[in-house]
Specification:
Residues 340-664 form the DUF6589 domain. InterPro entries: DUF6589. It comes from Rhizoctonia solani 123E. This protein has helices at 4-9, 25-29, 37-47, 52-59, 70-82, 84-93, 102-135, 147-152, 155-165, 167-177, 190-205, 211-222, 227-235, 242-266, 307-314, 317-332, 343-348, 350-353, 355-367, 413-426, 432-441, 450-462, 469-472, 482-497, 506-513, 529-552, 557-566, 569-583, 586-591, 596-619, 623-628, 630-640, 643-659, and strands at 269-280, 292-303, 401-402, 444-448, 476-480. With 665 residues, it is mainly α. The protein has four domains: 4-116, no CATH class; 126-250, no CATH class; 270-334 and 392-480, no CATH class; 345-388 and 483-659, no CATH class. The chain is elongated. The protein starts with a helix and ends in a 6-residue tail after the last helix. 23% of the residues are buried.
């Protein structure tokens, strides 16, 4: 390909005047027999009174009366098939090994360039018009950004659309941007800027062709780009105005709120809220204007999956009245002690009775996660395959509807009480009559972190003697968030077992595994949750593999793999039971109390398996297994000194057994 930069950087070629040379000089100097055929043909044309330009014009569709003549058709077809036309045009514009000679030659070259520019412009303009039609959207912002449009608006999809509608324009711009060492130039990719440029050109044809401009405008507004930047992007054809972005977000927010209100009215929902730190940036360069932050609350509602069943259980006012009257009468009769959580209730809990089998099954699964045993046929044996789920949710997508954040302090009792009124107010339950009717006819779970749920429970106790169900807050079912529980569980295990002076603590595991970022924690502060989470997964896997080496009497992973292949399923199951009973159970900590190092290692194994069970059941949506961990979590948090979570789990177990509406728990 000719180097375009040569034309840009070099001077114009010299034009040699040669029009005064005699036309027949070559012919007069050579014998007739030595004249080339092309020259002889031109001489014959001249003798016949036909110029070469007239011949070309007739052959290439210039004379309508001669278009269908057989010799003309054959000559034209031969010229088309030979590929000579492109070579001729290239040599006229860029003669090989010579400069442009004569004014006529220069004029012809200029005419060809003008034709090329005009033709290219027509082709590219048609492609651009075709692409512009696909980007034309209405003025209604809801047509631009909605759930379906956001799913399909990826950069790859937009690039494919540009390539399909304007292939010549796209390829020409990409080729222009390629460098001589493009294969080594990994830092620059012209596809992104070319895609933006083509859409900016479509925007120049009509301001209705503004799909990408609207999306970029909304993105800039959502990212808090200063108002002055919008004018620059709008001038470049990449965005719309700041005022449009403000109105667009208002319309989008209103549409999202309308959808949330409809969902809240038609389906039972889980209400979620937590504190948020709102930053208010400085707007002017004055001493009194400083960037400040303030406490606020972010709220979300999540429609429950089995809406028909949830509606039957939580939106039956007669059943709810009968349920609360039964509880009230029970306490008035004085038999309150017969309806309180006891140790016997924990021992009778299905999770407590099945805990040993579940832990042994988990130990077996750690064996078959070892590379080389993942495809072992024995893992499908009845003694070795995983226990079935207890109550696993079906795979589906939960839709979270965000509400407007409010400047309310949810960490206080007053703030929590105000939020219980603010959330239904945003859902158009905004009068006293509507609130009372809403609280009477509907119950629903409200969830958050431990502090949030603790405040709600204490509010319910403080307002237990109020006059109606709304003020008594009986329509609220407080449920703690399991993510916060898992965070607290990780921190508690890490805090109690990260002993740098111990030969069996987590500090030794971190050093052996080469983990960084794990420092000695305090009771109020430790490493980031994701760091501890990843470390606990690794150390649990490493410890379980070490216990399998101990139980099988082997020293290496290769020997362990060979042992698994030689052993029967019953022997492998017995080894898993041995690991659980002698190296990871409460009984083992009592049995080996005389050996502090071994006892400490057993306690770590036990609690790491507990955390593994919590994490696995949460990630796989097995709410039955999550519930089965509650008795063990109650014992752990009580012993670890985490009184808030111990109290919260006890409240859940008590509510589930003695106060939950029929069919809810």
């Amino acid at each position: 390909m000719p180097n375009i930069l040569d034309d840009i950087l070099s001077s114009q070629p010299t034009v040699i005047e040669d029009e005064d040379e005699p036309e027949d000089e070559l012919i007069g100097q050579e014998p007739e027999g030595d004249i080339p055929r092309s020259v002889r043909a031109l001489q014959l044309l001249s003798d016949a009174g036909i110029s070469f330009s007239d011949l070309l014009d007739d052959v290439f569709l210039g004379n309508k009366s001669l278009r269908n003549a057989r010799p003309i058709i054959n000559a034209r077809r031969e010229a088309f098939a030979s590929g000579v036309l492109s070579r001729v045009v290239a040599r006229v514009c860029r003669p090989p090994d010579m400069q442009i000679q004569g004014k006529a030659h220069q004029k012809a070259a200029e005419e060809l360039k003008d034709w090329a520019n005009t033709t290219t412009t027509d082709i590219l303009r048609k492609e651009l018009a075709t692409h512009a039609k696909s980007t034309k959207v209405g003025d209604v912002e809801r047509e631009v950004v909605n759930e379906e449009s956001l799913k399909g608006l990826t950069f790859d999809a937009i690039t494919d659309e540009v390539q399909a509608n304007a292939p010549t324009l796209y390829s020409m711009l990409v080729n222009m941007c390629e460098s001589t060492r493009q294969e080594k130039n990994t830092q620059k990719d012209s596809k992104f800027c070319v895609t933006l440029f083509v859409n900016a050109l479509a925007f120049q044809l009509s301001h209705k062709n503004n799909q990408m401009q609207k999306l970029i405008c909304i993105y800039l507004k959502a990212k808090g780009v200063p108002k002055s930047c919008f004018s620059f992007f709008q001038k470049a054809g990449l965005s719309l105005s700041y005022e449009w972005s403000r109105k667009a977000l208002e319309h989008i927010s209103a549409a999202a709120m309308d959808k949330a209100i409809a969902v809240f009215d038609s389906k039972p929902c889980i209400s979620v809220y937590d504190n948020i730190r709102l930053a208010q940036a400085v707007k002017h360069e004055r001493a009194s204007h400083k960037t400040v932050t303030d406490n606020g609350t972010a709220m979300t509602i999540v429609p429950m999956r089995d809406s028909e069943r949830a509606t039957a259980l939580l939106r039956d006012p007669d059943a709810i009245d009968a349920h609360w009257n039964n509880i009230t009468q029970r306490y008035r009769n004085g038999d309150i002690h017969d309806h309180q959580l006891t140790a016997a209730d924990l021992y009778d809990h299905p999770g407590f009775n099945q805990w040993g089998d579940r832990m042994a099954s988990n130990v077996i699964q750690f064996l078959y996660e070892i590379p080389g045993l993942e495809k072992s046929l024995k893992r499908k044996h009845g003694l070795l395959r995983p226990l079935p789920p207890v109550h696993q949710l079906l795979p589906t997508k939960d839709i979270f509807h965000m509400l407007e954040p409010v400047p309310m302090e949810e960490q206080t009792y007053g703030g929590n009480y105000a939020i219980t009124k603010e959330l239904p107010r945003q859902m158009k339950v905004d009068t006293d009559e509507k609130l009372v009717l809403w609280a009477r006819n509907r119950m629903g779970p409200w969830t958050g972190d431990s502090l949030t749920i603790q405040r709600l429970r204490h509010l319910q106790r403080m307002k237990a003697d109020d006059s109606n169900r709304l003020e008594r807050m009986q329509h609220i079912i407080p449920v703690f968030g399991w993510m916060h529980l898992d965070m607290n569980l990780c921190n508690a295990i890490f805090y109690h077992h990260f002993s740098e002076s111990s030969n069996s603590g987590l500090a030794r595991d971190a050093a052996a595994l080469g983990r960084s970022g794990l420092t000695k924690p305090t009771k109020s502060r430790g490493p980031a949750y994701h760091t501890v989470d990843e470390f606990m997964q690794h150390t649990t896997t490493a410890r379980m593999r070490g216990l399998w080496l101990w139980a099988s009497g082997t020293n290496t992973m290769e020997q362990l793999i060979a042992w698994e292949k030689e052993s029967s399923p019953s022997i492998i199951a017995e080894a898993a039971q041995k690991i659980w009973l002698e190296r990871a159970s409460n009984r083992a900590t009592q049995q080996f109390k005389s050996d502090p190092q071994l006892c400490n290692s057993i306690a770590i194994n036990r609690e790491l398996l507990l955390r593994h069970e919590v994490r696995y059941s949460m990630r796989h949506g097995d709410v039955g297994r999550m519930e089965h961990t509650l008795p063990q979590l109650l014992y752990f948090f009580s012993g670890a000194g985490c009184a808030n979570y111990a109290r919260e789990i006890a409240e859940v177990l008590h509510w589930r057994k003695y106060e939950a509406p029929p069919g809810v728990a």
